[in-house]
Every structure is written in structure tokens, then in C-alpha cells.
Amino acid sequence: MVEARPLPPLRQELGLSPAPPAKNGTPAWTLHDPPSNKFFLLEWPAFEILSRWGIGTVQGVIDAVNQETTLTVTEHDVLGMITFLDQNFLFQTTTAAGNQRLVSAQKASRPGWAMWLLKNYLFIRVPVVRPESFLKKAGPTAEFFFSRPFFAMVAVATLAGFYLLSRQWDIFLHSFTAYHSLEGILIVGCAIPLAKIVHELGHAFTAHRYGCRIPTMGFALVVMTPMLYTDTNEAWKLTSRTQRLAIGIAGMAAELLLALAALWAWLLMADGPLRGAAFILATTTWIMTIALNASPFMRFDGYFILSDFLRLPNLHNRSFAFGRWWLREWLFGLGAPPPEPASSRRTVFLILFAFLVWVYRLVVFFGIAVMVYRYFFKALGIFLFAVEIGWFIVHPVYKEVIAWTKMKDKIRLNKKVIRGVLLFLALIFVLVVPWNGHFSAPATLSAIREQQVNVPFSAMITGESAADMKKVRSGETILQLHSPDMDQQISQVTTSTGVSQWQADQQTFDEKLLSQGNILNRRLDAGTTELSGLKDVKGRLTLRAPFDGIIVARNDELASGVWLPRKEPLYVIADTGSNRVDAYVSERELERIRVGAPALFVPDALDFGVYKCRVAEIDRVNIATIDEPFLASTFGGPIAARNDPQGAIIPDLPVFRVRMDGCSPSAVPLVKLKGVVHVKAEVRSSLIEMLRNGYAVVIREIGF
Predict the structure, then answer these.
(1) Is residue 191 included in any domain, yes or no?
(2) Are the C-beta atoms of residues 590 and 656 closer than 8 Å to each other?
């Protein structure tokens, strides 16, 4: 009979200690397995059963608990406890079969080197030191950092530091751009490890102060990036929730204290490398640590702090269970009970938290996949990218779908199922049916013709006809320049050409000239050609309007007697008879455009109204540089770009110019307008478009 069944003996080294009470006020305990350094949270019934395990039989434990406490336990509770203890190998093993089971479990937990490497290359923990002896020696000294006088000193130092900083705020802000050199890189490379060491020491000293053993400290390779860690697992045995919260917060608090000390160092030190290091510690490092460690969506400090604050241990797994339960209920209306009893408020929180974590991890894991693809050579990068996407993104979705198929016998036709099917069909409709017949692209609206007039070469202004002009006619003089160097060259060539002409005329009468043969004629021809060229160049000093239009921009430095360098901009002349729109489209949109397609230009400045145009020209060669800086991302524009060493703006991805004309209204603003153009294009299915783009990316990236 079940009630006569003997209870397996527990291992002698297990430890049982009080834990903080549950949120409903019932007591709780922590079961510690020292060899594996694992901690298990036991609720009140489980503790009462375990504490009477020595009775030896199932029925004996049931009777003792029911008689000696206000609880009522059943065979199911005791048998569940046996299953829990057995699954976690907490029973003594005295038989050959039991030993073989342990060996098999150990082998199963140690996969082959290839599988181990595949699962652990993203996170490899390397213990470096056993800090217990150091913490014992330094512990009395570190007690000062937990005292009230120290907290008072920190408060005063913080207020005084921020006051003094406010008096040098401009200098402090400008320091952000002062460390872009090799020296700045070295400063950051030294400051960040120092901050991380202080962070981990904060955890270690706080945990040691509350009686926790720190078995190891070391570093972990996270996506091949070294990060320090401190093993504070024993914090789970603490009964005080405040103490556990203190251990979780200690790392970030230590870095904030370091930042405060660095701020004072920056205020008191002279400029130099040490002040630069102090600036980095006072700003960048603590911002980075809070951004990383304060997030509760990964198992960093913020997660454990939130778990203790809410008294919800194992928060991620419990919220995931609620998230899956809600999703199944929303889709299928199974009527299943929630994973655990919880108030409506807590249920909503756990569901929302689960979805936030899933979205966050989706972004993080996809980013890691891209990172490992970039880190390694292409063949290995593609393989690891596929592993990341498959294991961390596709695999969880696949497991959930499999779970749905196993519940097919429980699914009945109801309103929620009908709603889910309709939503699924709507999604398929949106993805498969061609409906998207437009696309948008950054664009500019300007005059149909526009030209900048520059100085042809260094010269001096002698007269400006366009000083009072607004409208100009083609060929009309707008500016007169003078170059003494040019006049001198013309004078020299005129003189030498005159000599050559005289010698050629006198050659038949002079024996010495006659002996030079055709040299004199060739010299005369060369001089005449050079003189003609110089006169043509001098003619360029008279600047004329290239076409009928208006002057929309004029150099304010123009005045008689002013010297101008070569290529100095003088005027911008625009033909305002009509306008044009230049759109900059991506490669994937280029095939969808046809000449004559209607388009709508919407300027950023809506006061100018909307322009209706048509596609006139489509460039089939991508632009090499972006001529309009305000369109480039380096100047806050919509086109991703970078600056090359020569200062040219280079687009990061292929961009093609599409010109549109016949715009209505035909008015042309005096300044070029930036905006967005909406073009009617070939209608395509969103799903087909995504598949085409994905195929193009794959083909591009697998090229070796």
C-alpha cells in the first residue's frame, strides 16, 4: 500500500534555513545542496513534510503534519515531494542501480565537446580567484563603507560636487569631445576595467558582510567580450529581503561611488591623461553599467533586484508560464487554470512582463546573431548566425507550436478560436495579396535648372553688374574680375610672339635667321596659339549668366577691390520657369518605378503646400556621392551615409536618383525644399517582397 511505503533517506549534507516569508505572510525555507551549490525555495507545506522525513513512511508523515500543524496534506503532496527530491538527486544512493543512475545523469549533463562548444561559446565562465581569505582580511576595513558617517559624507560630497560642477558645466560638456584620440581610447580601455572591478567588489564585500561565502570571482566571455562576475549564489540563504536587495544593488552603488570620487578628481586635477580617466569614470562607465545591469529582462542585477523587491523568485520562468497560458487562452479559449494562484493585478503584471522580456530578447538575440556573424570569418559567421536564429528564436516558437498540437483534443470551436482564425486569415491576406502600390523616398524640390557660379581662378573684383540685380538674362555680364598675373602673362606672350613674327618676316633677308629653318614658324604658331588661349582664359574673368533666371544666392563678401580665391562660390542662379523633384530611392524600389508614374511631393515645410508630379528620368547607376548634405545621416538626414577622408558624403547603401517634372503648382521657392515623395509603383505582395529581399541578402552575403 502507498501509506506503508518507506521514504528514501535524504543526503546528510543538505542544509535547511529560513527564508523570507511569502507575500501572503506564510513562512518559507531554503533547501541548500552544497555540492552543486543549488538553492530550492520551499513553501510551508513542503517544509513541514521535509522536517518530518525521519518518520520513515508516507502515512506517518501525513499523520504527523495533519496532527501537529494547522495544515492538511495528502498522499499527493508527499509523493510530489518524493518526485521533486528524486529529480534533483537529493536522496542517498546506496545501490548499484542508484549509482548507475547518477553516472548516467552526469554523462547526460556533459554533452560532447562539439555540442558543449555550440551551446557555450556565447557565455564561457572562467574562475580566476577564490576571494574568501582576502574578504576576511579586508572586511573590517570595508565596514566603514556601510556606516552612517560614510553615507553622510557621500551625501555632502554629492551636493558639493554637483554645485562645483555647475560652475564648470561648459568645460565639462566639452570634455565629451576631447578624448577621440589614441590617448582617449587608452584611457577608456583602462577606466572601464577599473569600474567593473569596483562593481564586483561591491557585490563581494556586501555578500561577505551578511555571512555569504564567495567561492569564486573571475571573468566570463559573453559573445567573446570579457565581463567580470562574482558568485553570490549563497545570497539565497539569507532570510532578510533587505539584505538580498543590498547585495544586488551593491555593484551599481559601488560604481556610482567611484563616479563621485572621479568627479571630485576631475574638479581638482589639471588637464592631462589622469583627468581624462577621471572624466570617463565620472560619466561613461556608470551610465553603461546602469544601462546594462539595471535591466530586468536579462539575468543581471536588475532581474534579481526586481525579483526580491516583488518577492517573486524565479520571476522569468513564472512570468513565461503566465505568458504562455494567456496566449493559449486568448487563441483557443481552453478554460485552463492559471499556472499558479495569483491576484488579478499580479496576473496582469506577469503576462505583460513576459511579453516585454520576449520582445527584448528577440531584439538582443538577433543583435547577437548579427554580431557573431561579423566577428568570425564568413563561413563560420553564417553557421553561427543560423545557430543563433534557430536555437534562440525559431526553436522556442517551434516548441510552443508543438505544445499547441498536443492540445488539439482539448481545443473546441468557440468565439476565441474563430477570432484567432480570422486574425490569421487577415494576416495572410495582408502578406500575400498585392495591395501596396506606393512607396516613399527622401527628395528635394528645386528649379528646373540651377547653377552655381564660381571664380575660375584667383582674381580681383573690378565691377559687379549684378549687385542690384535679381533677374538676369542669358549671356548678361554679372561680375567683372581682373588678374594682374594674367595680364602679365599675356604681355609676355604678346612680346615674344611679336618677336617671333618679326623674325619670320625677316628670315629671307637674314642668313642667320634663314639657317633656323621652320623653327621660327613653329615658334610663331605656338606663341599665337598660347596668346589666343590666354585671351580666352581672360575672357572667363567676365562672368555671364548661363541662362535666363534669378539670383537666389549671392556671396556677401563681394565688393570692388576684393581678392577671391579659385572656386570661391559667387552666385546661385536658378531658372524659375518651372521646377523639378529629385528623389533618392533604394535598389529594391528601383524596379517598381515606371517613367510617367504619378508622384506626390510633400515638403517638410508644409507652408509651401503639396506638389503633384510625374516620373521623368530614372538613373540606372547609383550615385557615388550625396550632393545635398541635409539628406545625409551625418547631417541628420534620412539617407545612411558616411564622410570619406576627402570630405565627400558617401551613401552606405546603393541609392539611385529619380527625377520628376511637370509638377503642379509650377512655382519655385527661392530655397531648395527637402521633403518626401510618394510614388505610385508596381503593386506587389508584401510576402513576395520580403522573400525577394531576403533572397538578395542571402546571395549577397554568401559570396566569398
Answers:
(1) yes
(2) yes
